[in-house]
Design brief:
CATH class of the largest domain: Alpha Beta
Bound molecules: adenosine-5'-triphosphate
Radius of gyration: 18 Å
Shape: globular
Structural class: alpha/beta
Distance between the termini: 43 Å
Order of helices and strands: EEEHEHEHHHEHEHEEHH
CATH architecture of the largest domain: 3-Layer(aba) Sandwich
Strand content: 25-35%
Number of domains: 2
Number of strands: 9
CATH topology of the largest domain: Rossmann fold
Amino acid sequence: METTIRVEKLKKSYGNTTIVNNIDISVKSGEVFGLLGANGAGKSTTIECILGTRKPDNGTISILGMNPQTDRKKLFEYVGVQFQEANYQDKICVSELCEETQCLYKEVTDYNELLKLFGLIEKVNSPVSELSGGQKQKLFIVLALIPNPKVVFLDELTTGLDTRARHDVWKCLSDLKQKGLTIFLTSHFMDEVEALCDKIMILKKGNIVFNGTVEEAIKNSPYENFEDVYLWYAEEEKIDESI
Ligand SMILES: Nc1ncnc2c1ncn2[C@@H]1O[C@H](COP(=O)(O)OP(=O)(O)OP(=O)(O)O)[C@@H](O)[C@H]1O
């Protein structure tokens, strides 16, 4: 399997504070990779450095063999990004926003199919501003998938979605993975990580504290429940077993 995302010795500091400390990441084609860590651990900074929207202090990054800083235009034909908040006009409706996104790319997926897949088709003519938080979140995933990408970056994948919607999103992403999509995600939901991720990396204050599979993470910890396992790696304090 070819390596789709390769990051070597990525480092980013603000002033004297190191936010991301010498991180190496390797994601193979068709894999789902989960970057985990507490609030402020450095996940979004890592993603922004990988995408070239933030300048790292050090490190080599390649996506699909391209450099996100210098091959930006070509690379983003193949890369989808889920934004937490997109910039859109106040009154724009769902179909218009999808069409605007389609115009940015040469080869696109039919957005109506994606809206159907994500249960949003009945909102196609609604103003985006009238969607619920969860519906907007799903729409941002749809926008990320419109370019028919080979790789997709999903930051806080299902934050704000209800249980049904989260499961629907997992199903959609599993189907897209079967078709060869490489997925790089961050999530605070360990059930989601267990359901989707082939490989995970746990960051603690910008340092890698675990890199491997969920099964390996469990095996190398004193716990069996993955949420306990995650906390054991990611948190400073030991878990109080009486809780
Ligand atoms: N422009 C900036 N200047 C100074 N510090 C910053 C800047 N951007 C981010 N940080 C700091 O970097 C740290 C990591 O932030 P980051 O957003 O990468 O964390 P995260 O793991 O994505 O957190 P969350 O789970 O809350 O989204 C935080 O302490 C944040 O305050």
